[in-house]
Write a structure and sequence with these properties.
alpha/beta, 44% helix, 242 residues, Rossmann fold
Length: 242
């Protein structure tokens, strides 16, 4: 096992059953961290982490981030098991990509509930304990869609931009408690948010989940070195936006 400054850190990551979340959970666990990997799909989590958890500390937890009761229950189980996490990574996200006029209320609600309400609820759950402890790192995985114009993504982009604005204000409110708020803005990355057709055509241009996992790990490590805080970081495929 390759240890790092994150060794024995307790990390809660949402949306950990696929894509960036899955790759990040595995990488952080292999670095010696205790990883609480949550997803709304509990069986998928258990199957994916069954073999790995024998060697490393990964605790699968069912949690639908759009459901307040799920978050309260998940956070209580984490605290009861191992105490307050050192790091929260809000990675769970959903993308529904349609022209604005074709986006119905159900689409809007689902996107906002997962992408914006979810991080609001997880941060509300964990922050009082981080403030009491006077330390903690919260990282949110957003998208370059917050500052680029992509057709058929008006509500998705709005959900990510809303989270970025919320984080910028929250960051200022919690600085005095030694808490660091980090926003990662990745470009196109191979994951379930893309259709098989999109990946077949443009997959060669996209980043891989492990690429983002490495960037997340390195940024978290940097956050524990010295009196500094990475606030916002944009990471795009070398060939640019799709």
């Amino acid at each position: 096992m390759s240890l790092s400054i994150l060794s024995e850190k307790k990390i809660w990551i949402t949306g950990a059953s696929r894509g960036i979340g899955l790759a990040t959970a595995e990488l952080l666990a292999s670095s010696g961290a205790v990883v609480f990997a949550s997803s709304s799909n509990a069986e998928d989590l258990k199957n994916k982490f069954k073999a790995l958890s024998k060697l490393q500390e990964i605790i699968p937890i069912k949690c639908d981030v759009s459901n307040k009761n799920d978050i309260v229950k998940a956070y209580k189980s984490i605290k009861d098991y191992y105490g307050v996490p050192d790091i929260l990574i809000n990675n769970a996200g959903v993308g529904i990509f349609k022209p604005f006029l074709d986006t119905d209320y159900e689409d809007f609600t689902k996107i906002i509930d997962v992408n914006l309400k979810g991080p609001f609820l997880t941060e509300k759950a964990i922050l009082p304990d981080m403030i009491e402890r006077k330390s903690g790192v919260i990282m949110n995985i957003l998208s370059v869609a917050v500052n680029s114009t992509f057709l058929n993504s008006s509500v998705y982009s709005a959900s990510k931009a809303g989270l970025l604005t919320m984080d910028r204000i929250l960051r200022e409110e919690v600085r005095k408690y030694g808490i660091k708020i980090i926003d990662m803005l990745p470009g196109a990355t191979i994951s379930g948010i893309w259709s098989d057709e999109d990946i077949a055509i443009n997959g060669f241009r996209m980043m891989k989940p492990i690429d983002m996992a490495l960037a997340i790990k390195n940024t978290l490590e940097l956050s524990y070195l010295g009196n500094l805080m990475v606030e916002e970081i944009i990471i795009k495929p070398q060939l640019g936006d799709l």
